Amino acid sequence: MSASGRGSLVVLEAGGGVATLTLNRPRKRNALSSELVAALSAGLDRAGDDPSTRVIALRGAGPDFCAGADLSEIAASQREGPEAGLADARRLGEVFVRIRGIDRPVVAIVQGRALGGGCGLATACDIVLAQENAVFGYPEVHLGFVPALVMAPLRRKVREAAAFELVAQGHRIGASEAADLGLATRVLPEEGFDAAAAEYLRELASRPATAVALAKRLFHGFEGVAFEDAVARGAEVNAMARLTEECREGVKRFLNRKDD
Q1: CB atoms within 10 A of CB 118
Q2: What is the DSSP letter of 143?
Q3: Within 10 Å of residue 68's Cβ, how many Cβ atoms?
Q4: Pick from 58, 72, 59: which is nearest to 28 by CA?
Q5: Which pLDDT does position 6 carry in this prediction?
Q6: Alpha carbon 35 to chain centroid distance?
Q7: Strand locations in 42-131, DSSP E?
Q8: 3-class SS of residue 157
Q9: Cα dist. 239→42, 51, 232, 235 in Å?
Q10: 225 contacts: CB under 8 Å, gap ≥ 6
Q11: What is the pLDDT at residue 55?
Q12: Residue 34 contacts residue 71 (beta carbons within 8 Å)
């Protein structure tokens, strides 16, 4: 997969099993315009459909990950009526759903600010690597707005009272607190952040792709399922995984090493 043009709203670069999608509106702090959302959706499709892709990373150009919705477009939709606003919201919602549906892990690489829809975008990812100076938050309430769309991924990662406080207070939190709440997976030092994130992605991409894909599908498939049914699904995937070539080779390597 070749890299997309540097002038694109979303730049796609791939190598070593990692496809990186970079939101490319740094002067607007990578605000989520309708065009950027469309480009991101297309980039996810392209990366997800490429068999050489083992991991997809999302990041922002410039000092920030993403400042959230493009408020000029919000204002335009207010003039156009509810249908325009609904269509706009659904486009971003489809990106969140696509991230969950891709059978490769999607990793947000967050530096600077991840606010509003940008925080929701990071939260929708499977893993969030945060630079130690990153800032997360849902400040929409200060504008009289509701972070309605992003609550779906938020409620699945953060305990109820803490999640509600984030959207009702609208305050910003640092990377360490975000990790404590479950918004961030790991906090990495500012110095050497890019190298550490790249090493994490390389390590994740080295894992057997079929095993990771089955794990992601099963993990998200547990939602809303009774315990007994979840165990039954786990047994089915267990049986499937045993028969994959990756598992056959992995077990063989382990047994041969043990016999040495």
Answers
A1: 29
A2: G
A3: 26
A4: 72
A5: 60
A6: 19
A7: 55-60, 106-110, 113-115, 127-131
A8: helix
A9: 34, 24, 11, 6
A10: 233
A11: 98
A12: no
Q: Kindly calculate the radius of gyration of the chain based on its CA atoms and give it in whole angstroms.
A: 19
C-beta of residue 58 within 8 angstroms of C-beta of residue 121 = yes
Between CA 256 and CA 129 the distance in angstroms is 36
The letter for the amino acid at 218 is L
- Per the document, the length of the chain is 260
Structure tokens at 67: 């400042």
DSSP bridge pairs for 23: 10, 60
pLDDT tens digits for range 20-76: 999 999 999 999 999 999 999 999 999 999 999 999 999 999 999 999 988 888 788
In the residue annotation, 236 being an active-site residue is answered as no
Block residue for tokens 């504008």: 143
Looking at residue 225, its pLDDT comes to 82
Joined together, the tokens standing for residue 3 give: 């890299």
Tokens of 232: 């039954």
Extract the tokens encoding 251: 């077990």
**In the numeric block, which tokens belong to residue 183?**
């918004």
Q: Which of 13, 73, 83, 140 is catalytic?
A: 140
Q: At what angle do helices 71-80 and 82-101 cross, to 10 degrees?
A: 130
Contact 84, 77 (CB under 8 A): yes
CB 40 within 8 A of CB 88: no
Distances (CA, A) of 258 to 109, 246, 252, 253: 38, 18, 10, 9
Among 64, 60, 66, 74, CA closest to 118: 66
Instruction: State the Cα–Cα distance between residues 41 and 54, nearest whole angstrom.
Output: 18
pTM for the structure as a whole: 0.92
Adjacent-strand bridge partners of 130: 110, 187
**CB within 8 A of 72, min separation 6: which ones?**
none
